[in-house]
Write a sequence for this structure.
């Protein structure tokens, strides 16, 4: 399978310069390993040194890199090379016929009272429970479970092993024992949401857990009951959000970050890798709370010092007061 450069720019735009529209592209490849029949891209100027020596048939570049790219050979000039590359991958997938086919796999179990749009694709060993709704052109890969009364919007992708609508973790303590709180809410997922493999989104206790349109969740993420995630927010693998937290729109939550319950995160908040968010964030920005890695002996000394900070603070305050009174 191949596409001509002319077909690519006709479909996606951009300006083909220094090359022939009839050139056949056999595959998409990284800049450093691309061969003479490959299409590559350069989006980060830090890798500009790789451009001059790349053997790619053509390279997607930003306008600022046009001259350097032309000195090497053919290029497609696009305002956002990385986005253009993403569109090329979609074009390539369509050409290969990789899209899921509508219908329900024979091994899937779909309750008679569930609603599955005729254009949706329900993969092997999926379970769609009573009252669940699956929207148009949505794809459930293998072993996805959508619990009762949960709704999934249009053009969503739920990867293998995703569980939507398991019970939230709710218990009341009585005399040392735990009494289950029935989780009576559901999960509502908007349009164009993608959820990675083995991620769990729990149903709400009373109100619903809500994932708004355009949200992207990576693999192995835990979303607890009654969490609300705003539109076009993205979360990387192994992140976890505790119950009743509200995350705004256009946020990014990096891998292994953790957000405790009952907090509010404003729009455009960006949380760094492994950060633990323990209080609400009311202003947009980048937030980090990572204790730096070190060799173990040094780390233990630093950790021991941190445990003494409050005592040291109180001693400094007392000293300041003595000097002030003195």
């Amino acid at each position: 399978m191949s596409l001509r450069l002319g077909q690519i720019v006709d479909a996606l735009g951009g300006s083909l310069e220094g090359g022939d529209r009839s050139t056949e592209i056999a595959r998409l490849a990284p800049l450093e390993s691309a061969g003479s029949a490959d299409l590559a891209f350069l989006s980060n100027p830090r890798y500009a040194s790789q451009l001059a020596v790349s053997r790619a048939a053509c390279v997607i570049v930003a306008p600022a890199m046009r001259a350097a790219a032309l000195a090497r050979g053919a290029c497609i000039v696009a305002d956002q090379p990385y986005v253009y590359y993403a569109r090329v991958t979609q074009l390539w997938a369509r050409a290969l016929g990789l899209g899921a086919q509508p219908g329900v796999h024979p091994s899937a179990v779909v309750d008679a009272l569930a609603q599955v749009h005729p254009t949706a694709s329900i993969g092997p060993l999926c379970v769609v429970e009573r009252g669940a709704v699956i929207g148009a052109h949505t794809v459930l890969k293998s072993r996805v479970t959508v619990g009762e009364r949960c709704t999934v919007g249009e053009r969503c992708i739920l990867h293998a092993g995703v569980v939507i609508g398991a019970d939230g973790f709710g218990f009341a303590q009585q005399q040392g024992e735990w009494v289950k709180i029935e989780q009576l809410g559901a999960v509502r997922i908007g349009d164009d949401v993608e959820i990675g493999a083995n991620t769990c989104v729990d149903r709400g206790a009373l109100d619903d857990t809500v994932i708004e349109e355009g949200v992207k969740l990576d693999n192995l993420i835990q979303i607890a009951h009654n969490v609300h995630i705003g539109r076009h927010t993205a979360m990387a693998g192994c992140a976890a959000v505790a119950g009743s937290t509200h995350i705004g729109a256009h946020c990014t939550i990096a891998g292994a970050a953790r957000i405790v319950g009952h907090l509010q995160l404003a729009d455009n908040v960006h949380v760094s890798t492994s950060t633990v968010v323990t209080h609400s964030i009311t202003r947009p920005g980048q937030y980090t709370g990572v204790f730096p890695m070190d060799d173990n002996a040094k780390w233990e000394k630093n950790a021991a010092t941190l445990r003494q900070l409050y005592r040291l603070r109180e001693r400094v305050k007392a000293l300041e007061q003595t000097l002030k009174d003195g």
Remarks:
- The CA atoms of residues 106 and 194 lie 24 Å apart.
- The radius of gyration is 26 Å.
